Amino acid sequence: MTIIKSGRIVIRGSSQQAALDTTLMFRPDQIVFGGGVVSEDFLKKVRREFKKLLNNYVDVGNVDEYITIPLAQHNGSATIGDFALALKAATN
């Protein structure tokens, strides 16, 4: 659950727990958090708590590279995906 208090983001378990569960069940090469509310400050908190929960149980390499945001700026990944779906629908 993420709570916003006076402009601060307070993380209470769900994002870093989701990253931990995903890591332990599926062992992905990378976890990408996206969406309009995800920022680098948010990810710093997620990474810090993720490291505590993981407790070096498995090696994920550099956590800053393992848990990231999309490469496209300003939630552009969603726009690119929308165009790709529109193109697919138009050509089928």
TrEMBL record:
Transmembrane segments: none annotated. It comes from the Bacteria. Gene3D superfamilies: 3.30.420.40. Belongs to the ROK (NagC/XylR) family. This is Fructokinase. It comes from Limosilactobacillus oris F0423.
